[in-house]
Design a protein that fits this description.
Helices cover 66% and strands 11% of the residues. By secondary structure, the protein is mainly alpha-helical. Helix 4 crosses helix 7.
């Protein structure tokens, strides 16, 4: 439990945060996001991975090979950070780089067989972490939550 979490509960365990704060979706999303990030980052670190590794491998598996710029757009990883992520993945033989036949200045990134196996392992790790994160929700509630969050995110992505 973090200091902020501990500060939200007196000795008897009852919430001491004002109701008007507990009813604010933005605050709830922010707090849950922080807890989710911590859970996912710590869980992936236990298997020597990072969330950006997963994002790149998943993108390559689902959409096929791509340039560093394409991967940046698909994953939300800044272009300046993408090189470092790809270096880490290439050092582990999880991706392969090859010159783009249409533009020799660019590389095309492809997931390797080892990367596919690693992705399947990370899928299992993330499934278990999400079970922990969403433990109080039924399967139907989990699906509904994902649908609602997706709708909100899609709306705001279109608006920006």
């Amino acid at each position: 439990m973090t200091r902020a979490e501990a500060a939200d509960r007196p000795d008897d365990g009852a919430p001491k945060t004002p109701d008007r704060l507990r009813r604010r979706a933005s605050r709830l999303l922010s707090q849950l996001s922080a807890r989710s990030d911590r859970l996912i980052n710590e869980g992936l670190a236990q298997v020597d991975a990072r969330k950006w590794h997963y994002a790149v491998l998943a993108s390559l598996q689902d959409f096929g090979p791509g340039s560093q710029a394409a991967l940046s757009g698909r994953t939300g990883i800044y272009r300046s950070d993408m090189v470092g992520v790809l270096n880490e993945l290439a050092e582990r033989d999880l991706v392969e780089r090859a010159p783009d036949p249409d533009d020799r200045r660019r590389n095309v990134i492809t997931i390797s067989d080892r990367g596919r196996r690693r992705l399947r392992r990370l899928d299992k790790v993330l499934d278990d972490l999400h079970d922990e994160l969403l433990a109080p929700l039924s399967p139907a509630e989990r699906d509904q939550l994902v649908q609602l969050l997706t709708r909100l995110l899609d709306h705001h992505a279109r608006a920006s």
